[in-house]
Amino acid sequence: MKLEVLEPEFSVCKAKNIASVRWEDGFCFFGKTDTELSLVCETRTAPADTTAREDGWKGIRVAGAMGFSLVGVLAKLSAVLAKCGIPIFAVSTYDTDYIFVKAEHFHDALKALGQDGHELVFRQ
Question: What's 118's DSSP letter?
Answer without folding.
Answer: P
